[in-house]
Design a protein that fits this description.
Length: 393
């Protein structure tokens, strides 16, 4: 059948190539000249704009598959297509759009007689070789028209399904990705426990072992096996983890439906924590522990002074030991690209540096020989700042 792909990034390009390999007539559009050239080299027809793409198809109804970032790019593309299409034509959004947006777009296209299907697409960069899992929402008529293409894109007849009315496809993909967050977090926590243990595990070997009929074997574990094969300690990457929105939407859906979802929620929160070089929350907790219990804290590194410090001979004292802090690893933001999913890649860390010495500062924060006076509830406030009432922790 004829199909026009809009968005020829990693996902769109691979899906176009798989369709071509299975005998379909493929046209496509992408603002990138290089992406259009790759489609031409693979045997497809590339258009320089959406108007040209519409005229690449001769049969009716015409079908267009969007693999572009969610939000305004999808709305803008659909609004451009509406006056170029005819009643009966089909638009498929195969990206990671919010299911509420998909429901709205379905309703907006109905007066024009244009069919709309929302399709959750899973398979990543391996989809061209292994096939894609396709979860579609919408009406049966356009679904059945597209079945020859769906069968080619999927690994087999069980690899695609009309899961419900408009919005159901993207809702199921949203929850799919939320589950993915929880699974990856569980694997990651387990491997850190192993890595920190007294045993010098070969993590690549352990992954390979677990993938042999164990209860926790999975494709994700196979990918972990590949990752550890190249870098068993993962020293070359930084633990900085992005999210593309589906995890947040899954947590919000759980709240809206009064469904407890602690594993998915905490997995999302751990991604937020991974992006902090230092946590203000942890600073507050450390400061409070020091205030009420005199517990040691680790001092941050002071910024270098631009003034010339006096020598010990000038002051008559020895220069105090400088404060130190943990090393932080620099990272650069990912580039925005026109495609469905972020590139499967990593942030490369700097060369390993010496570990800073952890220093107890209880003696520097509290004068020697003098402990904070205790009340029933905690540490007594400094003189002059008493409110006349007992403090609470």
């Amino acid at each position: 059948m004829e199909i026009g792909f809009i968005g020829l990034g990693r996902m769109g390009a691979n899906m176009s190539a798989r369709a071509l390999e299975n005998g379909h007539t493929v046209s496509g559009y992408d603002p990138s000249p290089e992406a259009r050239q790759r489609l031409e080299e693979a045997g497809g027809t590339a258009a320089t704009d959406l108007h040209g793409l519409v005229h690449c198809q001769t049969g009716r109804p015409r079908a267009f598959w969007l693999m572009i970032p969610s939000g305004p790019p999808v709305d803008g593309t659909i609004n451009t297509l509406i006056p170029l299409l005819e009643p009966g034509d089909i638009i498929v959004d195969g990206g990671n759009s919010n299911f509420r947006d998909s429901q709205r777009r379905y309703k907006e296209l109905q007066p024009h007689g244009i069919h709309f299907l929302d399709c959750g697409t899973s398979g990543g960069i391996w989809g061209r070789e292994e096939g894609y899992c396709l979860m579609l929402g919408g009406e049966e008529e356009p679904f059945h028209h597209l079945e020859p293409l769906l069968l080619s894109l999927a690994p087999n007849r069980d690899g695609y399904r009309l899961v419900g009315p408009s919005g159901a496809g993207h809702f199921s993909k949203m929850v799919h990705n939320g589950i993915e967050y929880g699974l990856m977090e569980a694997y990651a926590e387990g491997f850190e426990i192993l890595e920190k243990s007294e045993f010098s595990y070969d993590l690549h070997g352990l992954c390979k072992l677990w993938n042999q009929s164990s209860v926790v074997r999975s494709w994700l574990l196979e990918l972990a096996e590949r990752a550890f094969e190249h870098d068993d300690s993962l020293d070359k990457i930084v633990g900085y983890v992005e999210d593309t929105g589906e995890g947040r939407w899954t947590v919000q859906a759980a709240i809206d439906e009064n469904v407890p979802a602690p594993a998915i929620t905490l997995a999302l929160q751990m991604r937020f924590r991974s992006r902090q070089e230092d946590s203000f929350t942890a600073k507050v907790v450390a400061a409070l522990r020091h205030q009420f219990g005199g517990h040691a804290v680790k001092l941050a590194e002071e910024p270098p002074s631009t003034e010339t410090e006096p020598t010990p001979q000038e002051t008559g004292t020895e220069r105090p030991e400088e404060a130190i802090s943990s090393e932080t690893v620099a990272f650069s933001p990912e580039e925005t690209v026109l495609e469905q999913e972020p590139e499967i890649g990593v942030h490369v860390s700097e060369e390993p540096k010496g570990q800073p010495t952890k220093r107890s500062t209880a003696d520097t924060m509290i004068p020697k020989g003098k402990k904070p006076e205790k009340t029933e509830a905690g540490t007594k406030k400094p003189a002059g700042k008493s409110s006349g009432t007992k403090e609470k922790e």
